[in-house]
From TrEMBL:
<keyword id="KW-1133">Transmembrane helix</keyword>
<keyword id="KW-0472">Membrane</keyword>
<dbReference type="GO" id="GO:0055085">
    <property type="term" value="P:transmembrane transport"/>
</dbReference>
<dbReference type="GO" id="GO:0015920">
    <property type="term" value="P:lipopolysaccharide transport"/>
</dbReference>
<dbReference type="Pfam" id="PF03739">
    <property type="entry name" value="LptF_LptG"/>
</dbReference>
<keyword id="KW-0812">Transmembrane</keyword>
<keyword id="KW-1003">Cell membrane</keyword>
<feature type="transmembrane region" description="Helical">
    <location>
        <begin position="309"/>
        <end position="326"/>
    </location>
</feature>
<dbReference type="InterPro" id="IPR005495">
    <property type="entry name" value="LptG/LptF_permease"/>
</dbReference>
<feature type="transmembrane region" description="Helical">
    <location>
        <begin position="68"/>
        <end position="87"/>
    </location>
</feature>
<dbReference type="InterPro" id="IPR030923">
    <property type="entry name" value="LptG"/>
</dbReference>
<protein>
    <submittedName>
        <fullName>LPS export ABC transporter permease LptG</fullName>
    </submittedName>
</protein>
<feature type="transmembrane region" description="Helical">
    <location>
        <begin position="338"/>
        <end position="361"/>
    </location>
</feature>
<feature type="transmembrane region" description="Helical">
    <location>
        <begin position="108"/>
        <end position="126"/>
    </location>
</feature>
<dbReference type="GO" id="GO:0043190">
    <property type="term" value="C:ATP-binding cassette (ABC) transporter complex"/>
</dbReference>
Amino acid sequence: MSLVNFFPSRTMSFYMGKMFLVRTFAILAGLVLILQSLDLLSESSKIIAYPGNGDAEVWRYVGLRTPQLIATFLPFAVLLGTILALSQLNQNSEVIAMKASGLSAHQVLAPLILTALGVAALSFTFNDRIVARATATLEQWKKVEYGPLPIDRGDRANVWVKDNDDLIVVDQIRGRGDAAQLYGVTVYERTGQSLRSILTAKHGVRDGTGWKVDGVQRFDIAAGTLADLQPLRIAEGVRPDQFTLSHINADGLSFAALREVINDLRVAGRPTKALEGSLWHKLSGPLSSVLMPLLGAVAAFGIARSGKLFVRAVIGMALGFLYFVADNFALAMGNLGAYPPFLAAWAPFLLFLMIGEAVLLRTEE
């Protein structure tokens, strides 16, 4: 059988695909509208609390938060859209007509799976180009309590690193590798857990295996004195990546950017397992849309007059929600290091793919 003959007629395929898309995006719009309204109830007061903020900042928050909600709940909307579309086709005896024409259950589902594949591709592009940037911006905006957001030039801010007993806090880091420059350096010099002195510097650059800082002052805790010092070396053995790669938000990075960060961390000899799981999940997450027609297919087959259509729809929803629970659990186990990154991202998808096929074959084929 050729690939073209595997699908129902062109008219029927377009009809089913359109029905599926309309219901999916209608449900998604309703979910996002309700959840965004509820989210604003808690966040709008925090936004308005900052002096000078008004309606423009509230709408800016909506513009940054909405892509996150869309990315999170699109798979749920695909599941519910699948179940509604298949239930209606079953209720109207259209599935029976397709079966009577000689189509198998997989051929009946083929238009929905192909459409879901397009939704998955759209979801990946949307997450990579829009959601990642919105997440990164919103995270920074929350850190300044919805105040003026500094211009993002790719610099890192408010980073701390532990150097033996000492704590090093840097207001801003520019550049990467040996070209990295530190601005607003504060070193809490400690012996054990006791603070001896506080050293501050305006600027620091890489110097061999340490950092040379200028504009230096040291406050001695015991003597209570503040002294100006000549430029000196600090943080011997502290690598540039400990400053530039100290805080990685995988959700705020695109697929390519996250892969580059993982490579940098691997070269520096730092653990990357949790980030590798997030990288794989950037692929498996959107692809879960392809799984939803298979999990919701239980609502398509069986005689609607039996009165069990609602029960089958509930079973389809239960299978879909169980997948999301398993997916989140596996990702959490991957972040803890209990699962390998590839397994954490792909095991739930492959498991429920087999479950969906088993249920479909058992009930229909």
